[in-house]
Model the fold of this input.
Amino acid sequence: MDLGSDLERTLEHLNLALEESPVPEFEWNRLTDFLGLPLLSRLLGISAVSIRRYKAAARTTPDDVADRLHFLSLVVGDLGGAYNEIGIRQWFERKRTQLDGRTPLDSLKTRWKPTQPGPRRLRDLARALVASPAT
Amino acid sequence: MLQSVARHVIMLTLTMRFLCPQKPQNQRGFRSIDEIRRRTRIAPGSRLAGNWLVGECQWCLRSGLRTGRRLIEMTSRYSGNRFRSPGRARCVSGHKSDIILVSTMIQIGSAKAPFTSPRVVFQAVSALGRADAMGLLPANEHIETLDLSSFRRAVRHIHLPASLGTSAWILAAIWSGLSNT
Done:
């Protein structure tokens, strides 16, 4: 096996590790900085007050919220390859033909789960932005 | 392809200052921090650091400013039995503002071997972007040239062992992979 394949496999492992490991204690701060409290609150379907509490570790982040937060981190990570911070925020509120004319925000209904079709389509859409320059 | 890669960016946190609409004034000073909080709309949870009251300003939260984080510092000196606000108690002097964190993009200017294959670059850029968005990279981390040493340096910062405990075996594979490369 050549050097490139070895490295590619190693990086795949790293990506897999990141993808499957929610770390809310880090993600709250970063995503709040990126998206701002109001938008993050709408995306996660929880109140700003709750976000503040989870962020300050005054309350443990529930698993389902941690899952959603991690999902958003991955989406934002993918969007970072194509947009700046303002662009990322706007991306969530712009209608997309790939989402049947709906906004990514609309695809995330209350108490959504990352495995649901809507969020998965949104994820694929963001992922395509990273994939496009490399293929 | 490299030009496309060059457009990819890593976030760097910078601090910028903007005006804050909050300008409450109280020439007589305040009797307690609670009074300051009550009368100036500094959100609960603010704390006193030296002569500064640090917290979030509720005016700013409602102002429609698209800020990632609003850190308000309010001047207030304690003298006698009152917190004296020279002229005013306000968000960092009212005009001095809140501090807004803005993530800025650093361009990857070039890519060196072994990051020459599109698939390897794709995986590397994905990993860095994700780690950054997850808050696993330290602030001010940036990569100008994507090569093995700069990538290794960035990956070293990722708090994998502590935070990704269940993936310890993956971590081992990653490190051995990067070392052998």
Observations:
- Chain B touches chain A through 56 residues (CB under 8 Å).
- The CA atoms of residues 52 and 75 of chain B lie 5 Å apart.
- The longest strand of chain B covers residues 9-18.
- Helices of chain B lie at 2-7, 33-40, 58-62, 118-133, 148-157, 160-163, 168-180.
